[in-house]
Design brief:
Blueprint lengths: L3 H24 L6 H8 L3 H7 L3 H6 L2 H13 L7 H13 L5 H13 L1 H25 L7 H23 L6 H13 L3
Helix pairs in contact: 1-2, 5-6, 5-8, 6-9, 7-8, 7-9, 8-9, 9-10
């Protein structure tokens, strides 16, 4: 059950995020300060940091929670589901877990166009990969450490990131799932 406090928090987070994205679009990510965002949003910097731990978190969101949702979704796939399909299900779940598709598009563009954000994004994604490797390993038929687990995990992340970057560059005109399938086919089939 969602409480009044939860709903109030969601509204505040949305207003802060809307303000931040507007300022990033107007001034650029690097040129926009936390102080400017807080002032425009009508809150103190201290309050802003209660909602978002860092400036990067305004764009990248709560990566720890998303990483955990991804891990749980992959792990909870039925036993007969292979690693490729389980990872896809995980990414489908997290794609719009926190935001509507239009907001995901805005955030993706900002991440891929801003070197500092892209670096932070990659750093967090590498941590997600390490956490998923044992889960992928468990889905393979070999009981010992299998290099395929790491390769499959890295390949899926590369496909997701490539598809997302192309989708953002097309301003959402291309189908993200189709782009992912094309990337994955290029790896799996060599085409």
């Amino acid at each position: 059950m969602t409480t009044l406090w939860d709903r109030s928090r969601q509204v505040a987070v949305q207003q802060i995020l809307d303000t931040a994205l507007r300022l990033f679009a107007e001034r650029g990510y690097e040129q926009t300060t936390i102080a400017q965002i807080a002032k425009e949003a009508g809150i103190s910097q201290r309050s802003l940091f209660r909602y978002f731990g860092t400036k990067e978190d305004l764009v990248c969101g709560d990566q720890e929670a998303l990483g955990e949702l991804l891990r749980q979704t992959v792990q909870q796939q039925p036993a007969g589901v292979g690693p490729w399909e389980a990872l896809r299900a995980g990414f489908e779940t997290i794609l719009t877990a926190n935001h509507a598709p239009q907001r995901v598009l805005e955030l993706s563009r900002l991440i891929f166009e801003t070197p500092a954000l892209h670096a932070r994004y990659i750093e967090k994604r590498l941590r997600w990969q390490r956490e998923l490797i044992p889960i992928v390993q468990a889905r393979l038929t070999t009981p010992t450490l299998d290099p395929r687990a790491k390769a499959i995990t890295a390949a899926v992340f590369t496909c997701v990131d490539t598809a997302t970057e192309l989708w953002a560059a097309s301003d959402g005109q291309l189908d993200l799932a189709d782009l992912y399938d094309q990337c994955l086919a290029a790896i799996r089939d060599g085409s």
